[in-house]
From TrEMBL:
PANTHER family: PROTEASE M3 THIMET OLIGOPEPTIDASE-RELATED, PUTATIVE-RELATED. It comes from Robertmurraya mangrovi. Pfam families: Peptidase_M3. GO terms for molecular function: hydrolase activity. Its EC number is 3.4.-.-. This is M3 family oligoendopeptidase. SUPFAM superfamilies: Metalloproteases ('zincins'), catalytic domain. Residues 171-553 form the Peptidase M3A/M3B catalytic domain.
Length: 565
């Protein structure tokens, strides 16, 4: 599972150690005269170029840290960015936004090209509070501390110290006794660090609440809806929660009964609620995983495989588990290089195979944007759009899982499991969203109350069919191993919204594969200045999470699973 991590994969065109030099570059933008619409457009391009250079360097430093949280030099560079550069950028971003918004030519900019940028900048000007800068720096420090704790987490397994992701992968083991042992080991390990994680989350909740109050909001939830420039309301989210509980959970319960029958167990326990019907992991070495995924992508569209092979050859993939590596997986853009980087810390398992396919959906989306629209600026990065193409790639490759599973029944089990995962994406992230609504509208809650609320919500949604007796405390504390709550608050419901779009893409693919793939590529390369609904339309699907849409796609998903005989 070892992998060369020494290859340089990003460009440092700006020296972030030279703080004075960086300030001089930013000051030159603030001092530049803007005497026409043309001047303003030139100024915006100059600002974008500098921002992209800074972003690529900081992104590279962050990924370096995630790849090796135990290297003192790498950590020092990353912390310098967070503690020195980030506050500087926050301060000057506010001044740059103000200069731009107060220009008499600001509202003369073309609406189609600059409309979204105008709305985002005006929102940022309204939200900015200088007193929030040190709070945001502290927030990042706590996020870093979480990565260090989880990156160094190991579990004793059969006489050896194994990374935490390895133990998680054992939940896919066909032997139920192994699954139960893995679950108990994970929970015992998590319990040891839970006080530290609770302390971090307690402080994060208070910090975030104070940021919101400083900006004139009653709570952090309301503040984040404005920060994220969401194109839907808080009530829309609550309606979505209810629609899924009404239409998806009953279908999930029926499906869980099928899995329970296939497992031949009397009670569906927490360690039964994962992939476990395939006889063995789909691969044992990272190179085998890469070979197979490259072939699956190529059998879908030559461009997909070409991009994957390019990334593989240029050190833009870091897959597999090792001690000191941060948990989770993600894809990030390198705007100056015009590249994307995929990071994953997973042991061999069905989930890790799907996770790579998922991240390659992001990567292909990134490369299509680079080739058609140029580097995506931050204000265009709406998660509801990004996750459509990651989930969508999973759906497009569903019929190619036979690349890793040679026996017919294993192929069917893998396809059912991927579609079961689609179900989990409809309710799991959504229940996590509801959990965050509660956390941040009740900022003075205790750690015990937080665990109890998480258990309550889990039982309403994904654990509805599971016999949780005797494991209430373990389930209640299991939120702490989800990095989103610590590092990307209120980034969860987007997975559920976009999965509805991805299921529509699967429906289209079943009817006309070539057309569905072309729609995927068209939407992934579309102009992101448009609304989310317009981008979804270019992908051949609807941005719709109303009750009729939830009901229809739930019925479709259940039927597709039933049709796999």
């Amino acid at each position: 599972m070892t992998q060369d991590t020494s290859q340089n994969y990003y460009k440092e065109l700006v020296d972030l150690k030279d703080v004075a030099g960086l300030e001089t570059q930013i000051r030159s933008l603030l001092d530049a005269p803007i005497e026409s619409v043309s001047d303003l457009e030139t100024w915006l391009n100059d600002e974008k170029d500098l921002t992209m250079q800074i972003t690529e360097a900081m992104t590279g430093h962050q990924v370096d840290f995630y790849r090796n949280t135990e290297d003192a030099i790498i950590k020092s560079t990353y912390l310098h960015d967070q503690q020195v550069i980030q506050p500087l950028l926050m301060k000057y971003e506010a001044e740059l936004n103000k200069k731009c918004c107060e220009s008499p030519y600001f509202h003369q900019l073309d609406e189609n090209r600059y409309g979204l940028m105008r709305r985002v900048r005006e929102s940022k000007v309204k939200l900015f509070r200088e007193e929030n800068i040190p709070l945001m720096v502290k927030e990042q420090e706590l996020s870093t501390k979480y990565s260090e704790i989880m990156g160094g987490l190991t579990v004793e397994w059969e006489g050896e110290e194994k990374p935490f992701p390895f133990i998680e992968s054992q939940l896919d083991h066909p032997d139920r006794a192994v699954r139960e042992k893995a679950y108990r080991s994970m929970m015992a390990t998590l319990r040891q660090i839970k006080p530290d994680l609770d302390a971090i989350m307690d402080e994060l909740v208070q910090l975030r609440h104070q940021m919101a109050v400083n900006a004139g909001f009653e709570n952090y939830r309301d503040y984040m809806f404005v920060v994220k420039n969401r194109e839907y309301s808080i009530q829309d989210c609550y309606d979505f929660h209810e629609n899924v509980e009404k239409h998806i959970i009953p279908a999930w319960n029926r499906l869980a009964a099928v899995f329970k029958s296939k497992l031949g167990v009397d009670a569906y326990r927490p360690w039964d609620n994962t992939a476990k019907l395939m006889k063995k992991p789909p691969y044992s070495e990272v190179s085998t995983l890469m070979d197979g995924v490259a072939e699956m992508l190529g059998n879908t569209d030559p461009y997909f495989a070409e991009r994957f092979n390019y990334m593989r050859e240029n050190g833009l993939l870091d897959l597999g588990d090792r001690k000191g590596k941060s948990p989770g997986g993600f894809c990030t853009s390198l705007p100056v290089s015009g590249d994307t980087f995929v990071f994953a810390n997973f042991s061999p398992s069905f989930f890790s195979l799907i996770a790579l396919i998922h991240e390659m959906g992001h990567a292909v989306n990134g490369y299509l944007q680079f080739s058609e629209q140029g580097a995506l600026e931050e204000y265009k990065l709406r998660a509801e759009v990004a996750e459509l193409y990651s989930h969508g790639m999973e759906m497009l490759l569903l019929d190619k899982l036979d690349r890793f599973y040679t026996e017919e029944e294993d192929v069917k089990s893998a396809q059912r499991e991927e579609l079961r995962r689609a179900f989990t994406m409809l309710y799991g992230p959504l229940s996590g969203d509801l959990f965050q609504h509660w956390m941040y509208t009740n900022p003075n809650h205790t750690a015990k109350e937080r665990d109890e609320k998480f258990f309550e919500i889990s039982k309403r949604y994904g654990l509805n069919p599971v016999d949780t007796s005797g494991f209430e405390e373990e389930i209640g504390m299991s939120w702490a191993k989800t990095l989103h709550y610590f590092q990307v608050p209120f980034y969860l419901i987007e997975y559920s919204i976009s999965m509805l779009g991805a299921l529509q893409l699967l429906e289209n693919y079943q009817n006309n594969p070539e057309q569905a793939i072309e729609f995927f590529k068209k939407g992934a390369s579309a102009d992101y200045n448009q609304s989310i609904a317009a981008i979804y339309k270019e992908t051949g699907v609807s941005f719709d999470f109303s009750e009729p849409a939830v009901k229809r796609m739930g019925e479709f998903l259940e039927k597709v699973i039933q049709d796999i005989h």
